[in-house]
Amino acid sequence: MRFITLILKNPFRNRARTLLAVTGIAIGIATIVTLGVITEGLKTSTENTLKAGGADFTIVESNVSDMFFSKIDQEYVDRVRNVSGVEDAVGILMAVQPLDDNPYFVLIGIEPSKINMSQIKVTSGRTLTDPDADEVILGKVAAENHNRSVGDTIR
């Protein structure tokens, strides 16, 4: 018997073993592809989070499990602003709150004079004018949930 004939006939002699081998190889390939997709998605998500608001970098407190638990003093923000090569720096206040049927709602507080540093685009309504006024800008989801027009400023 020729070697090539042996190679072609052998897989069909024990079909159960062949089926298990093919199944194992398929599961292995699917696992590797899935892990690659998940890793790339996490990488993209992390990069988007760290560059939120168009920032080149985001500074958070060390040894915290999530950036929402990070606390940085305004004095530190001022020190970062004075670093050579840094155009501007702004501190933001972030909190997660439940909202109706949504599992969470992210609240972001920023100085009205620094809102141009964020990637917030007001499509309807107006931007904040008085830093001491009790006003907020709602995003699309929040505005739709509260039957208000997109981006309206609310008093």
TrEMBL record:
Domain MacB-like periplasmic core positions: 18-155
Superkingdom of the organism of origin: Archaea
One Pfam family this sequence matches: MacB_PCD
Transmembrane segments: 20-38
InterPro entries (UniProt xref): MacB_PCD, Macrolide_Exporter_MacB
Protein name (record): ABC transporter permease
Keywords: Membrane, Transmembrane, Transmembrane helix
Record bears the keyword Membrane: yes
